[in-house]
Amino acid sequence: MPAPSSTYRLQITPDFTLRDAAGMVGYLRDLGVGALYLSPLLTSTLDSEHGYDCVDPTQVDPQRGGESAWAELVEAARAAGIDVVVDIVPNHLGVAEPDQNPSWWSVLKEGKDSPYAGWYDIEWERFPVLLPVLGKDGEDQLALVETDDGAELHYYEHRYPVAEGTWSPGDSARAVHQRQYYRLVPWQLGRDALTYRRFFTVTSLAGLRQEDPEVFAATHTRIAKWISDGDVQGLRVDHPDGLADPGGYFVRLRELAPDAWIVGEKILERNESLPSWPIQGTSGYDAMFDAGAVFIDTSAEKQFTRIYTSITGDHVNIEDHILEGKLNAAYELLEAERHRIARLAPAVEREPLESALAEIAARYEVYRSYLPQGDGYLLAAERAAIEARPDLKEVIGQVTDRLHDPKDPMSVRFQQLCGAVMAKGVEDTAYYRYSRYIALNEVGGDPGTFGIGVDEFHRRMVDRQLYWPESMTSLSTHDTKRSEDVRARLNVLSEIGEVWAPFAQGFVERMDIQNRSLAYLLAQTLTGAGPIERERVQAYATKAMREAADQTSWTDPNEEFERVVHAAIDRAYDDPDNAERLRVILDMVTRSGWSNSLGQKLVQLTMPGVPDVYQGTEMWDDSLVDPDNRRQVDFAACERILQGTEAPPIDATGAAKLWVTGQALRLRRNRPELFTGYAPVPADGPAAQHLVGFDRGGAITLATRLPRGLAAAGGWRDTTVRLDGTYDSLLRPGTFSGTVEVAQILFDYPVALLVRR
């Protein structure tokens, strides 16, 4: 089965169900979408907005419409000729509410005798299963409640099973609690005393043992039926790095779905290649960086480093911020995982061994190895750890053979730890601490690389076409820290550093926040997002400062520090002088931001790979990090604007972006033969560096980069491109051939999509 021409991601929630999605199929067909790409659909915790906390993998979630709405959606998609792609979550199940998860309830009630005991990655030799849920009141609020089939323990609204034969009427809740296969413990122990593998630091998500073929089969029954019934043509696999054996998992998944288009949520670091898995590629974070970074003025790096350090006083580079964040994750956030690995080597002195594990994991250059693939990354990390901590050389030598053995449980768990250390230390810590240029602080991004030039962009695209032509490409996702349009507006700053510096200096000083890097991050956030509701900025600030974990954190909130930050944001909105200064900088950013947005959108939609459009981003989107980026979309407005038959003006409505998106998607769907290759289309002349152009095999993309610099230099002037035939313009009327002035093609739109006759 060929890959879809494109995908469109919809967040299916209790408020936007599969039935609502079925009603969107006509709009998506008209937009040109090749496949409907759905967030997780299997039964999740009640009221879950995201669906990544599945509690029953055997059925479609009733609160998302259930099986009947699923059937309606499948029928509508088939009638419209649209494929269906579903996001699946093999790494874990939700266990926050045991009574909602039948398999977890059984494990807690029956222990090792449960038929589901082998599902979960539980350290059974450390009896009982520890559940970190108790508050300050401890067991005082536990209640023993008789039911029709026995008894339960209740802690406020939370319910837990009671094993048969472990209670009698009149027993105290405390006494019965002590007889169970589980133990409710203070929530703080989730950091260092867990007896089951969790998802990163989320104790309400318990890891599954997908390396066991029986567990794989049991947890993929509904997915297998989707495939066998022909209802689903593609799968996006969430967080494969958490699995014990990602490669083996993908082999089994390919056997289950031999013809499906499969992509994995794999985040690649600089110069890292995708492992040799039987899939079509990644979910697109690598492409996201490429498509955006080419619209940054790389020559401004030193200027922006000076601006950042002078305003914030932060002279620590991104590499050191990352190392600090990863060490914090390895030593503090992921203690339980480190303890478990150390217990696998009882003959080695415990404390230095745990330090060695933390130091090695923190120095991994990539998320993890897939031994024997990636063994070099482990060797490099060991050498770096010994160089930094020569006192650990002996203990590292004691376990190095085990860490390099793919079959050794110690090695397997260490690889899983490395991915968690990277995710928590980098994306969720360092990227909120280091704010030199936050357009680059994105999942899969590279804040240390201040944009890329056109030649480097072409080199990357040639490789993408050669090796991963069916990998997904993305600009925004449910996990991005800021939307594509926010990043596009921020990219304008690289052209106006001389104006940005005094504005940012004044903004940070007026904020009067002790953490000046946070204040600088907020200055960029307000500039990138524009005049959005202050409540959204306040919510964003709370998440940003707690993730950074400098003066406050999720587990130990500093209420006074947070109050100061929120008061400063209020001043930014309420003080007339602040508001006027922000208006001036926004006036400079807005129109050039629109140009960057259209440019990176067209590039992403036409570059090698399968382009994904995240819901609502066919229009301007000012979203920040989740849950802000999961707000309901005004699809009715999108549908009205889509009815237009002529290119709209580029203005605040966002109609121009919808026009560009629709034209590109329909061309990819209707003329796939035009997108089978890749060749740069260089410009010649005084403004050549302001054009990024490429030919996909009959479809040519031209996009303006660095629009303010272009205008300041007098526009395109006599800059030309050479066309090897006659081409019609899809976005604006026109036919071109031979050597053509760029100004004739891009006379009122900053982008063009040309089709060879």
The total count of helices amounts to: 26
What characteristic shape results from the CA principal axes?
globular
User: What is the makeup of the main sheet?
Assistant: 8 strands, parallel
Mean pLDDT: 96
* Low-confidence parts: none
What name does the CATH topology of the domain at 7-91 and 210-278 carry?
Answer: TIM Barrel
**The CATH architecture of the domain at 7-91 and 210-278:** Alpha-Beta Barrel
Kindly report the name of the CATH homologous superfamily of the domain at 7-91 and 210-278: Glycosidases
* % residues in beta strands: 15-25%
Strand order, sheet with most strands: 16-15-14-5-2-1-18-17
CATH class of the domain at 7-91 and 210-278: Alpha Beta
Amount of helix: 40-55%
Topology:
Elements: E1 7-10, H1 18-31, E2 35-38, E3 42-44, E4 54-60, H2 66-80, E5 83-88, E6 92-94, H3 102-110, E7 129-134, E8 142-147, E9 150-155, E10 158-161, H4 173-177, E11 182-186, E12 198-199, E13 202-207, H5 213-219, H6 221-228, E14 234-237, H7 246-256, E15 261-264, E16 281-282, H8 285-293, H9 301-312, H10 318-333, H11 335-342, H12 350-362, H13 375-388, H14 393-403, H15 409-433, H16 454-467, E17 472-473, H17 484-492, H18 497-511, H19 516-529, H20 534-548, H21 559-574, H22 576-606, E18 610-614, H23 635-642, H24 655-670, E19 679-680, E20 683-684, E21 691-695, E22 699-704, H25 707-712, E23 720-729, E24 735-741, H26 742-745, E25 751-756
Helix pairs in contact: 1-2, 8-22, 9-18, 10-12, 10-15, 11-12, 11-15, 12-13, 13-14, 15-20, 17-19, 17-22, 18-19, 18-22, 19-20, 20-21, 22-24
